[in-house]
Write a sequence for this structure.
């Protein structure tokens, strides 16, 4: 448990060298630290030009902009000092060394500034999570969702629910008190249960968007899979526009799963290249195949790559029609069957599969069946020449937009949030399952459990154990 009387400092800006570096100090000695470094305390919240010196040697370190934010109207709620320095390594090292010489100052832990802001009531826990997501957001859609979270989209909703729950709980408790006065007790209990029913509905509706919200944080997972040498790695490199995966004419080149992150018009997509799936005696390749199968089965979409010429010669049925129909991948049996549909197709939860007929450049013009059709989930491409790739990327973009793009922003974006909300709805469900008369005590207890779960969601109660987990994800200086 960190000591909150300590004054902490850290480099809050990115990796040097850079044009500017921001060093922040937070805690009761922040003003004193600034005084020691620049010889005075600037007017609150006013950028002031200052000469930064080492307090012991008096040596000038840099000319900087200094700011002072007295608490509690500061980001952490404590006194905060900020220096905007020239962003060189030696400048930063010299400034941090100077701060280290000042009594009761110490370097900040990861996320410690934000943790203090949370402890001082500046942010609730859902906003803290939104802040972490905002820092890591790579695409526009992720940024938008994180910002809404930081602004309290979920936190405010949860607080409003909690207030209503506490009212319902008070009614149920009144029901206990009046339980020997028949009518009054029934009446207040009915009102309590009516409120509980409405709340449960709203929470269930919110939970319905949860998987979309959680997915947007992680990105849509698209796995490239298929037989060896079909050109999977070449396709990944072509879509990623860089040589992320090794390509070779030897079957069995790729062993580990290679991951690239794409931003498709604001939607995050994680594209995976996997080992070609075949039976093999090589233990390393066998492990690669096992990983390929596992990752493909867990993906949101599988791009099943085959050689176009092979389809024409060896699987004539796959030129169009039957085998090209959109269908789902079941287990891995249909993978291993190449293009043949597995017997138990259409099992819910298995990822949809698109057939990518690669190497169309090798197919003789006369025999060529160019067959790109998103509705049929078949694409003819040449990963080597780039032919057909634009159409495939466009289809992926549309797919991602449809996957993420519901009109309403998702409120629940993390498993932690989903679980606490599920706890609350489960407690409400149990309260509603009780026969109203005579069981007021149980109803009141379940309502109390539900409001407690909502308190955990925003971080008002019971959070000590999860704080370390949440703040661990932050960088130092945030
Ligand atoms: N002509 C032609 N050759 C291609 C095309 N795509 C890939 N190749 C070649 O096919 C060979 C195999 O390509 P890879 O991308 O390594 O195939 P892979 O499916 O990743 O293979 P494994 O990792 O072994 O499963 C290489 O020699 C590529 O240059 C294409 O569209 N046209
Ligand atoms: Mg490969």
């Amino acid at each position: 448990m960190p000591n909150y009387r300590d004054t902490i400092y850290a480099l809050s800006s990115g990796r040097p060298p850079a044009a500017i570096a921001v060093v922040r100090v937070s805690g009761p000695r922040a003003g004193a630290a600034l005084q020691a470094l620049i010889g005075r305390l600037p007017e609150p919240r006013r950028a002031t030009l200052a000469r930064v010196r080492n307090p012991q040697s008096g040596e000038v370190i840099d000319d900087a902009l200094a700011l002072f934010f007295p608490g509690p109207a500061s980001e952490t709620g404590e006194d905060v000092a900020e220096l905007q320095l020239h962003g060189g390594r030696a400048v930063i090292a010299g400034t941090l060394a100077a701060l280290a010489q000042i009594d009761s100052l110490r370097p900040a832990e990861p996320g410690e500034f934000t943790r203090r802001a949370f402890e001082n009531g500046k942010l609730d826990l859902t906003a803290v999570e939104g802040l972490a997501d905002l820092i890591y957001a790579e695409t526009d859609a992720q940024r938008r969702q994180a910002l809404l979270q930081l602004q309290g989209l979920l936190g405010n909703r949860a607080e409003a629910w909690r207030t209503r729950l506490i009212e319902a709980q008070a009614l149920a408790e009144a029901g206990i008190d009046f339980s020997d006065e028949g009518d009054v007790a029934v009446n207040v209990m009915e009102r309590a249960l009516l409120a509980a029913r409405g709340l449960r509905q709203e929470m269930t509706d919110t939970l319905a968007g949860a998987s979309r919200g959680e997915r947007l944080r992680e990105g849509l997972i698209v796995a490239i899979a298929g037989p060896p040498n079909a050109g999977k790695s070449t396709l990944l490199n072509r879509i990623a526009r860089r040589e992320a995966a090794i390509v070779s004419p030897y079957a069995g080149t790729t062993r580990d799963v290679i991951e690239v992150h794409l931003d498709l018009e604001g939607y995050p997509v994680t594209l995976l290249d996997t080992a070609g799936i075949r039976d093999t005696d090589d233990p390393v390749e066998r492990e690669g195949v096992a990983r390929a199968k596992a990752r493909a089965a867990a993906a949101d979409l599988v791009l099943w790559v085959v050689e176009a010429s092979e389809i024409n010669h060896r699987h004539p049925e796959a030129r169009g029609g039957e085998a090209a129909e959109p269908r789902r991948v079941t287990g891995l049996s249909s993978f291993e069957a190449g293009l043949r549909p597995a017997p138990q197709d259409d099992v819910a939860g298995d990822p949809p599969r698109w057939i990518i007929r690669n190497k169309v450049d090798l197919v003789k013009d006369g025999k060529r069946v160019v067959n790109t059709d998103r509705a049929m989930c078949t694409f003819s491409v040449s990963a080597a020449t780039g032919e057909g790739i634009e159409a495939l990327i466009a289809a992926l973009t549309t797919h991602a937009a449809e996957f993420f793009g519901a009109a309403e922003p998702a409120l629940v974006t993390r498993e932690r949030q989903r679980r606490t909300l599920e706890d609350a709805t489960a407690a409400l469900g149990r309260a509603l399952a009780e026969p109203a008369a005579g069981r007021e005590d149980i109803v009141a207890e379940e309502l109390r459990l539900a409001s407690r779960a909502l308190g955990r969601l925003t971080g008002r109660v019971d959070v000590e154990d999860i704080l370390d987990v949440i703040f661990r994800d932050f960088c130092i200086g945030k």
